[in-house]
Design goal:
Radius of gyration: 18 Å
Strand content: 15-25%
CATH superfamily of the domain at 3-96 and 186-304: DD-peptidase/beta-lactamase superfamily
Low-confidence stretches: 1-17, 19-38
Order of helices and strands: HEHHEEEHHEEHHHEHHHEEEH
Helix content: 25-40%
Largest sheet: 6 strands, antiparallel
Shape: globular
Mean pLDDT: 89
CATH class of the domain at 3-96 and 186-304: Alpha Beta
CATH architecture of the domain at 3-96 and 186-304: 3-Layer(aba) Sandwich
CATH topology of the domain at 3-96 and 186-304: Beta-lactamase
Length: 307
């Protein structure tokens, strides 16, 4: 499906924007110095919200040019399993190769639902590197908890993120409880802008060593859980590395991704965060996934200047 076809139902509105280059760390001075100007995606995203009775949060930046698209970029959403990529990045940053490859016991009582890799290791062991790969590629929940334990729990992850300049993302619980976020609760939430900035810091701007970055990106490229999200929104031949998430209480789906259009420098991908929620909508998974894909298509078309 072409980008234009995917956007055929989009209309006009406000809330969203395309604008000038955005830095990794955003404070009030930077925000005031970089006002957002209206863009085509603004109306398209608002129309998608209205037609689906949903809320969409999006921040997408072309790191080669600084052009970006934003929609509800400062609003909080449950990050769900998209947070696993940040946990994996924090583990890679904080751990040398010998620690990454050392065995970590997998206690049977610690195995939680949706743990396709670690459940087979119950009573045995898994390395931190294997846990990180499992968390990113197949969204293994016990693997996420093993990584969190290595960092000192959710508070340890929070400390690492604060050190990386992310003052917004609020890791507070383990899997699977972290997926339950109700209105007014900031635990295990972030904003589209903050998530994109953290992904950029780790995967583009040098927070991770080149070898650690390449390993994490390879896991995201191999991820199997987001085929109907950002990957479904881009033309054939584009390269996508992503991590999806499904909050338990919001009725939405999420995806965070690095995207390389043909000719895009490998060291300067587009970085895209799409969060959605549809509380009380009771929508089927396919329609919610389609919402993420359609929102992504609007941002991609804006960045590519194709509509």
């Amino acid at each position: 499906m072409t980008l234009t076809a995917m956007l055929s139902t989009a209309g006009c509105g406000e809330h969203g924007a395309a604008g000038t280059p955005v830095p990794d760390r955003v404070d009030e001075t930077v925000r005031a110095a970089s006002p957002l100007a209206g863009g085509r995606a603004a109306g398209q995203l608002t129309a998608l919200e209205e037609s689906s009775d949903s809320r969409i949060g999006l921040f997408a930046v072309d790191t080669a040019t600084g052009r970006f698209v934003a929609h509800r970029a400062e609003e909080r959403f449950a990050f769900a399993s998209t947070g696993k990529v940040l946990t994996a990045a924090a583990v890679l940053e904080a751990t040398d190769d010998s620690e990454l490859d050392a065995p970590t016991p997998v206690e049977p009582d610690d195995v939680v639902p949706h743990s396709p890799v670690t459940e087979s290791r119950a009573g045995a062991a898994i390395s931190l590197r294997e846990a990180a790969e499992a968390a990113v590629t197949v969204s293994d929940n016990t693997a996420q908890n093993i990584m969190l334990e290595h960092l000192g729990g959710p508070a340890g992850l929070e400390a690492v993120l604060r050190g990386a300049g992310d003052a917004t993302t609020d890791p507070a619980r383990y899997e699977p409880e972290l997926n339950e976020v109700f209105s007014g609760d900031t635990r295990d939430t972030t904003t589209p802008r903050a998530m994109t900035a953290s992904l950029r810091a780790y995967l583009v701007d040098g927070r991770l060593s080149p070898s650690d970055r390449d390993e994490l990106v390879s896991w995201m490229e191999a991820s199997t859980t987001g085929q109907d999200l950002v990957r479904a929104a881009v033309p054939a031949g584009w390269v996508v590395a992503d991590k999806s998430g499904t909050p338990a209480t919001s009725g939405g789906r999420n995806d965070v991704a690095l995207v390389w259009p043909p000719g895009q420098p490998r060291n300067a991908p587009w970085v895209i965060t799409v969060f959605t929620d549809r509380p009380g909508a009771g929508a089927d998974a396919a329609s919610v996934s389609g919402l993420v894909a359609s929102a992504t298509a609007a941002a991609v078309a804006e960045l590519a200047d194709e509509v």
